[in-house]
Amino acid sequence: STKKQTITANSTTVAEWYALDQPSRDAMWLNKIARSFMLPEQRPTEIYTDNINSQLLLSKKGGKSANRWLNLRYFFVKDTVAQGHVEIHRVNTKRNAADGFTKALAKDQFKIFTELIGIC
């Protein structure tokens, strides 16, 4: 589901990390539902981000002290990745279909967007 964030993020990295939190939780919930129906678990669920700093935080190769207050969301996403439930992949900003729903695009980017979502 799409909804506005209820918390103001102090950086784009924090905002992107908040955006990774909910799909990670949804993946865990869907896996529980699948198990309850005795369906084979489809692991890992792939989640895409165009934010490099989010991936650096995930791989322990980066992260500023300004991001320390991510706390529970940070550790939840890190744990779901460590347990193999989800994988976070980088997607090039030009190939990020979600941008077409959240920002104005130039004509050439709009054409790519419509192709990505299967309209053209």
TrEMBL record:
Name under which the protein is recorded: Reverse transcriptase Ty1/copia-type domain-containing protein
Organism per entry: Penicillium solitum
Taxonomic lineage: Eukaryota, Fungi, Dikarya, Ascomycota, Pezizomycotina
